[in-house]
Amino acid sequence: MELTDICARYDERLRTEDYADVDASANGLQVGPDRADVERVAFAVDAAVATIEAAVEADADLLVVHHGLSWGGFERVTGGAYRRIAPLFDGDLALYVSHLPLDGHGTLGNAAGLADLLELTDREPFGRMGPEHIGQRGRAVDPYAVTDLATLLDRELDHGARGVQVLDFGPEEIEDVVIVTGSGVDWLDEAVAAGADALVTGEGKQKAYHEAREAEINVFLAGHYATETFGVRALQGLAEGWGLETTFVDHPTGL
Length: 255
Hints:
Blueprint: H1 3-14, E1 28-31, E2 40-46, H2 49-57, E3 62-67, H3 79-90, E4 94-97, H4 100-104, H5 110-117, E5 120-129, E6 132-145, H6 146-156, E7 165-168, E8 173-179, H7 188-193, E9 198-201, H8 206-215, E10 218-221, H9 224-227, H10 230-241, E11 245-248
Helix pairs in contact: 2-3, 5-10
């Protein structure tokens, strides 16, 4: 399949252009030629030396990631930037990135995948960022006990054996859940205003402890990497449906 065709299909499904003014990431094709044939696609959460080299080793023509290399552009391609970009050129590997569009997509996104895992119903967009959303809100079919929800996340997510941290300051039974994957505690106030019983996110900040305690809400810190594998795996499924060979490069950080 032609590289431009793959990128156009992803851009259309993910509404990449709609996030252009709210996302620091340069979403879409970040590294690649004007035209190229793609037979094998690798998928990873992060564009890093380890994942890029693994994609090259797997003989991939394209690497699709959630966290890319360009966050507002480059002034110089030196140091770490050079170490990451050089193997892309050396391996003739293109790079496609989807950050916030892949967080917020209603069915393909990271929050959607985590909501599927929790079997949430009555879903709606959550986590406003400008005119867009990057998370989801839903209701548990049966209320979760705090310990049961923590156990489920701990068992099912790829958190590098670091475990799930819980700020258990809210109701003992959890029905109303909001999800903002990755670094989502900045939406804690919005979760409180929405009357949620729990916020499920990836990583926390020091201030979140007191904010959650004072607002009497549960917060589950399940790992930035762990909560953001869902989206790229969903994009892998699309690529397989298009007849492409795929591979997933799993490189959990434990963070």
